[in-house]
Fold these 2 entries.
Entry 1:
Amino acid sequence: MLPLLDYLKHLDIQLDNLLIVAKNLRDLTTQVFCEKEVVSYQLEQKKILTDIANISQILEVNYHHQIDKTDQQNLRNKIHKFQKLNQEYIQNLKKNHGLIQFELAHSHSQNEEIEKLSDQLNEVTLSPNRPQTVKAKKTKKG
């Protein structure tokens, strides 16, 4: 297992990558675009989100209480920026391309995945003063 700082650095980089893709998607939907471009960005976004979810899970299980406030705030800010960009992207699609009749890969289920990931990341980035719980393992008496 890597040290906490390595996971946080990787998560930070992936959140930056996610923001770049989200900006590209948002900007793309303000103009005439082809489905192929959007789908390409969406696939890239999905890969990044999967990686972020995996890192978040590791942080939650192994390092939750060790993440300092500055790192938590940085993560929260990036998550919030992503959520805002994603919402703008969806609004642009509805407003500017509502009459276009092709199925985009950014479906309702992907929006649910994004919301679930955001909730998961918010859990990881909660205050370090959050009470810690210890899960007990069942043992056989014998």
Entry 2:
Amino acid sequence: MTINRLLIILFIAVVAVGCSKKTNETNEQVVSIGNKLSGTWVQKTSTIFYYDDYGNLLGAVSGLLVNLKLDSGLIQAYDVGYHQTLTGQYSVMTASRGNVLDMTVGGVTHYYDITVLNPPNLTLSETIGGLNNTSTVVLGGREIIYTKSVQQNIYTSSDAKN
């Protein structure tokens, strides 16, 4: 009976140590990404792609350009078209699909996949919608029904850390 208890205690200890190492690695990765994001990011392009239920591309349009200043969890977003600055907060989290920038600006939260982070280059991608979701958009003078949109934003920075 004593050996069984000892084996159970050893098993729990090994599992706990193994889990804490993974958690520490994830936390270190998130901190590293957060450090690389710090700086002023000038948006070069914003493209919104529209897809049907089968993943076929229906069309694409240019989105609004919004420059970002990220620093220690605080964000300033400058809408180039409307000449408006909004403030908010951001954080980085690791999801099953990769690293995600959780950004709340002007009371609206967005979850952007960080698809490229190699200062001075940054690409963020946000997917909205999915199966069994239908919305409409006018593309080229035609109203199109789509199920998913993906917005891809490409930035550059002169002061981001590598």
